[in-house]
Amino acid sequence: MNVLSSIDTADLPVTELDRDEFWYKDAIIYQLHVKAFADSNHDGIGDFAGLTDSYRLPTDSTPPIPGLLQAYSQMMEDPDIGVRSRAATEWTAWEDAVISQESNGTPGAFGDRPDNAKLAFVRICSHYFAHDGFLEDGVLIREAGKLAGIPGVLIHGRNDLGGGACTPWELARAWPGAELIIIEDSGHTGSTTMTDQMHAAADRLYGQITNPA
Fold it and tell me: CB of 201 within 8 A of CB of 154?
């Protein structure tokens, strides 16, 4: 999204940023994928009005919200289909927003699923998230050292907002001999580069297993 301005830059003071021709290397640049917003006028393209009209969810508050995951899990067990449907719609709106910045992030990828599939998806996710995956907090990374001698390749998309790259990085540090590959052009939805890296990793692992040194 580009915004043009009619400001006369000649009247603006010169800053250190202006003197640094490589300023963009350390800059943080945000991009809005408006097409991922709700389509308020039904022209087939998302718009800002669709965002403000439809995306007023409990998650708009400053995170974290105590008990949020437990609340969604409880709503997905409610006998009232209306309660379950609204909770599923809110949850998938968040899912769609998370992948909207990705090259393969299709608008409505989660929210446009059939009702039964959407309800099942959110019910399973919220149930496991509300119970911390039924694992002790931090146990996977804390005990990853037990995997020593077992080859592994961790492949993760840099733009995966739902699961930050810090987690596979921590796991790679705790797993002796593990290989970590960060895919710069990929997020949660993957990319051609990620697929290629997965195939290459599978070939390497097969070679290590069948022809150990």
Answer: no
